[in-house]
Amino acid sequence: MKSPAINQAMDILRELREISEASRDIPEKLNKIIAMLARQMGADAAACYLVVDDNYLELFAASGFNADIAHKISLRVGEGLVGEVAKTGRFLTVANVWKHPSFSYKPEMGEEPFKSFAGVPLIRWHRAIGVITLQKKEVYEFSRTELEVLETVAMVLADMAASEEMIDYKNDLIRARGQSGKEKYKGISLSKGYGIGNAVVHRRRQAVTKIFAEDKDKELKRLEVAHAKMNHDLDEKFNSTKLGIGEHVDILDAYRMFAKDKGWYKKVADNVGSGLTAEAAVERAYEDMWNRLSGTKDSYMRERLHDLRDVADRLIGYLSGDPVSEQKVCHDNIIVVAQTMGPADLMDYDYTKIRGLVIEDGTPTMHVAIVAKALGIPVVAKINGIYNQIKNGELLALDGNEGYVYIRPSSPVQERFREKIKEKERLAAKLASLKKLPSKTKDGKKINLYLNVGLAFDLDYIETTNCDGIGLYRTEIPFMASEVMPDVAQQIGYYKELLDRAGNKKVVFRSLDVGSDKLLPYWSNAGEENPAIGWRSIRITLDRRAILRKQMRAFLRAAAGKELNVMFPMISNYAEFEEARETLMIELEKEKRRGNETPAKVNVGLMIEVPSVVFQLDSILRVADFISIGTNDLAQFVFACDRGNPRLTERYDVLSAPFLRVMQEIITRADQAGVLCSVCGEMAGNPIEAMALISLGYRNLSMSGSSFGRVKSMVRSLNVEEMEDYIKILLKSNRRTLRPQLISYANDHGIEIY
Ligand code: PEP
Ligand code: MG
């Protein structure tokens, strides 16, 4: 026996479907639906408002008000009762609107006779895209049951309002009024690069029109079949796509496990058991999860919610008999435009054709952006309202460096973009041609160039750059991409893979450097006031010694029979280095006692990142086999300047006398002690900064693969002896920055600093 509310909702939904099928004309359809709603709910008036641009709601259909009022009323989001429903995204009932402080009277509507009000938002992607209202002439409290019916109708209307035909209708209206014409939009860059191509609007979500099921068993069977088919197809797709290796693959694997999660499946099945259709059950399970987790500040959990949205959409697609297989696109160069996207969505397209990705709701950590970056696809995100602005097939130009999207770009803009894309290709070709040439300065000094790696796809650079080795392996990166703390066997797997790929080249492993900006998903943030100078890096691993011991064991076993280079980050004094070094040595002894093969040679070093160690270099250089300077952290502590604070980026410069003198001090001491000294912070990967370092005496630089070619090109055009005198003069300067002087010097001396 179904409740009266369910019976009433089913009657309304049946009529709604009949109206939708009978009528093609959008205004007629909406008017009929609203009139039907007023009649069925026993109200004297009803209305439907839709958001037209980000901040305005427009009356699209009305019943019981003055005739021909549609499209003549608009309200700011937040204005009046309707605006409040849109702003809060929550229903609102008022027994007598004339006594309500937020009521905004619109005389042209003819609403004088009405007293009571109920408004429910149309929600899409957690945002109100419209509002439906009911009004009665009497003072009246709308009941919870009536609201539930209204919410069910709102769910269906929201799908209708977000349909392609409705968006086109709205855009035509806006264009006809001449409100449009803006063609350049600013967002944030999530992956660099330029792209030009035809828009493919990513609309995957199916409308859930049938909410209640007649036959639970049949419905459960449908769910079971669709779920199994979806997982089978996902497995096939992932296994057959050439994705290489890397963090993006870990993300996609985690997604796959999510799609198979038994707990979530059980929740959906329970919802079916309570009378919902399988589609509505999926939607309800997602909404429950969203309600529980959406308030979290934890970016990892938020990304998981995005993934779950994607899995839910995918499953609904399978349930409706319209699974998402390869998206059919008729252009060779496409830019995918999505409101939001899960990581697997990208693989529904032939990604070799994707020249860019625009995501209306995006965050830097969102999984699809990480996958896109790994595939070399530029991404621009966070542009409010852009999703509804763009039509399939429209030409778009995307500037992933600055975060701009151009809709229907003019010919000069198109020309500029094509030129930038070509320029990038030309530079890449020129830099690739340097691969076989030695990394020597014009006056014959050999500069060893190493790679910084972390993500597995960084390893591809080992082959493409012909580097001298790996100067920094950020071991925390696979820890960050993992769901749980990797055990020794898993760690050995990561480290061995790197050593195998590096062949005979030297590899420097850095011990776990977590905390501050590098958080592990399975470790809660300590909630410190100053995490950059808090419990982080070696401070954590010395306190949680088991983690350090396990990592040392994994290093030793992975490098059995080979040379092992280990360095410790964020060392603040000699004692800390000794303690860390001792931990490694004890593990080495244990390995020997166990009879395990040990590395042929073990070199132990540290990172120079904390200014205090510069004042203890004499002692440290007596025991350390090598040192490597983390200029990113060192600069933040030398200048007392947060390395991630954009307000401060212009204020202090590593290319200034105080910092260059610190750098000079370190290399001079290391050379005197005969200890190998390299730089592995960002400074080493920036041609103009690397040029200054070489003139100070540095001969070992470690950088990201993408900087390698540009630095090598600078090295090959530099005459070190000629520059040494000039840098000595600059070290006496009191200027805030020496960058302009160094750039002029490079330009005057034909030094290539791209
Ligand atoms: C540095 O601090 O310069 C460095 C190389 O380490 P990370 O950037 O990983 O902190
Ligand atoms: Mg550092």
Measured as a percent range, the helix fraction is 40-55%
Tally the helices.
Answer: 27
The fraction of residues assigned to DSSP E strands is: 15-25%
Ions, cofactors, ligands: which are bound? phosphoenolpyruvate, magnesium ion
Average pLDDT, all residues: 87
| Structural class label | alpha/beta
Unreliable residue runs? none
Question: How far do the termini sit from each other?
Answer: 75 Å
Number of strands: 22
Strand order of the largest sheet: 7-14-13-9-10-11-12-8
Global shape: elongated
Give a short account of the largest sheet.
8 strands, mixed
Give Rg in angstroms.
Answer: 31 Å
Word description of this protein:
By secondary structure, the protein is an alpha/beta fold. 45% of the residues lie in helices and 16% in strands. It has 27 helices and 22 strands. Strands 7-14-13-9-10-11-12-8 form an eight-stranded mixed sheet. Strands 21-20-19-18-17-16-15-22 form an eight-stranded parallel sheet. Strand 5 and strand 6 (127-136) form a beta hairpin. Helix 1 (4-22) packs antiparallel against helix 2 and helix 7 (247-259) crosses helix 11 (367-374). The longest helix has 25 residues, at 216-240. The termini are far apart. The mean pLDDT is 87. Magnesium ion binds at residues 569, 609, 630, 632-633.
